[in-house]
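[job 4471] stage=fold_predict status=RUNNING
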Amino acid sequence: MSFNTALSGIKAAASDLGIIGNNIANSATTGFKSSRAEFSDIFTSIGQGVRLDTTAQQFSQGNIKFTSNPLDLAISGSGFFQMEGDGNTVYSRSGNFKIDAAGNVVNNSGFSLLARQADNNGTITGVVAPLQLSNAYINASPTAAVSSGINFDARELETDSSWIINAGIPDTSGYNSSTTTTIYDSLGNDHIITMYFSKPDPATNPNEWNVRTMIGGVLEDTTPVTFNTDGSYNTPANIPITFNPGGGAAPNQAFTIDLSSSTQFGSDFAVTSLQQDGFTAGQLLGVDVDKTGIVFARYSNGQSQTVAQVVLANFANTQGLKPTGDSSWIETFSSGSPVVSEAGTAGLGLIQASALEESNVDLTAELVNMIVAQRNFQANAQTIQAQDTITQSIINLR
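[job 4471] inference complete, writing structure tokens
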């Protein structure tokens, strides 16, 4: 019996206890993956003990815990977040992200989350770069089109001949009904636009109305619109309007009014829809991330915009990844090169926003393993004690 054999057993049990202790210590670490000790025997002509063969990482799914931070991201399924920092690319399952002073989405170590960028139209491109959410204003967009669905009351009497404006305000006797909305110029300034609807002589023009458009108390246009005998809209397809907003905005702003969804029935006047496509400037209010990693930015002007898509990476041999601390890994020759794609494709999992993946450590199992490792340690120590007793007996034979 050899002291070295027992000593190797003690070292192996100590290593096992160290790995188990590390698992237990990180049982509350976000994105942590537990490890287990794997041993092999040392054999020459007879057994010479045991050695720690490898520390095998266990990449099983951890529980998903929901949070109130929309930039907390969890992966449900396979894959890793791809991040960049200090000139290195690292991979992690820990998705507790935040926005730094420069607008970059980073983890607690300052590594930037990588994503496929979107162009100005919100279309995702193939360019992978650090995800950035700018606090700068997004540009205003001048109104180019106004669309409205209205029911014109076919029973109305003639008012058009009484149309008159006093101090920028039309006399109520000169129109049957009206509707108002807000449009925007090139600087995002808002302007009130009102459409007044006047009925010409029903005996002469029973299916015709005059539409007068006023902006800021100024009459900008008068256009007759007609309906078919079944009450459906006839002409014109669009009413073109041009006005000068002033205040430093681009002059001669042109837009169209589309009334093609309107009707003329023998029922009360009603506005069923009224939209315009302009908006003022806005600042970032928050973000939403969907299950495929699409990042939507929400702005104070009511607009939302696709800014990027978070990418995930996977490896042919995840056991070959090298841990670097902070619940992160780097690729090695053994792991192979990363396969990078969007969530939900190429075998990758889906992303859950406002959630974090907890450690996959099973505390009950680890405590049982700790007892077993402790018994192994004690048994090997007992072997040394027995060997020492035998050695002393041999020495005492002299």
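[job 4471] summary: The first strand starts at residue 35 and ends at 43.
[job 4471] exit 0
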